[in-house]
Amino acid sequence: MKKTKLVLIMVMVLAMSMTALLGCTSTTAPTETATADATEAPAEATSAETATDDGFVIVGLYKMGTAEWFLQEGEASRQIIEAAGGTFKYMDCETDGAKFMEMLDTCIADKVDGVLTCIPDQNLSQAAVAKLSEAGIPVIACDDALEDENGTLLAPWVGIDAYNIGAGIGEWAAQYIQDNNLLDDPSFGIMLMTADTVSSCVPRTEGQIDKLTELLPGIDAKIYRADHDTNMETGNVAASAVITGNPQITKWLVLAVSDEGAVGAARALESAGLAADSMCVGLGGYYCPEEFANETSPFRAAAYFSARGVGGAAAQEMLDYLQNGTPIPEKYAVSADIVEYGDDLATIMPEYAG
Prior knowledge:
Helix content is 39%, strand content 18%. It is of the alpha/beta class. The strands form two sheets. The chain has a six-stranded parallel sheet, with helices on both faces. Strands 7-6-8-9-10-12 form a six-stranded mixed sheet, sandwiched between helices. The longest helix is centred in the middle third of the chain and has 18 residues, at 162-179. The chain is elongated.
């Protein structure tokens, strides 16, 4: 099967002081960089000797701790931190903002040395960063940025090259449409599984749309949106509503911003009896082994990027900072590959299929 290599972008810019991190970010131009001053380590962790003597503790606090993505991300962080002689604590706030803030209070009370987190509600970013900054605890945002209402980064971020990965999916989708003679088929439609309230997901959809409309002018008339919060259940509900509301469409191409959204849409298509002529494309790839093994699933492709790549990079940045005072880069983004049904998943994604 064909595999499309997406563009690799790594944007690494020195971070600002943890008490006043200010960097511009854009959901439509991921290659744009921001400049910042070097971050100085807090007094309690200014050297490798101090950190290792205290047996440094780093917490991974995630919004959906039972999700495969975060389990893999946390495991990568754990391995790197423990190999360096530290302790990694995995925490799950279960998408509950109040619980997230309580867990931050616990981290502060326990005097942990650093926090890696994917926040459940980005509206809590300023309060979270303020708490940790006051306590002198450095934080790195994983996947979803810690940002203010204007999208300005409040803390260093590690995640995916969202826009360009979305554009790669859009390019793959345009080829799929042409190869299957769907462009002028009145029974064909594109369903975008959007997550407009999650800033890290918005550029994924924007990339998909921009590339599709660039390669297939007029295709926007066939695009339908199903907004959800990247959760499988809400994705299923949103997709079901779009399917039910558009009975004229019997062949769907679903482009998601997460694997969970694609799986939710796949179940909706199966329930509607439309799976055989439809295709769902995930984003993440962690559900590929399970879905590819499901004979009835229309989930047959995904943009794969490694959760371990994100978790490992974030952990190493935090370690370098705590041990050596190395400034934490403001941004670090990873790329992706398109995988399709029939590919050798054990070789491509051993952490999921091995």
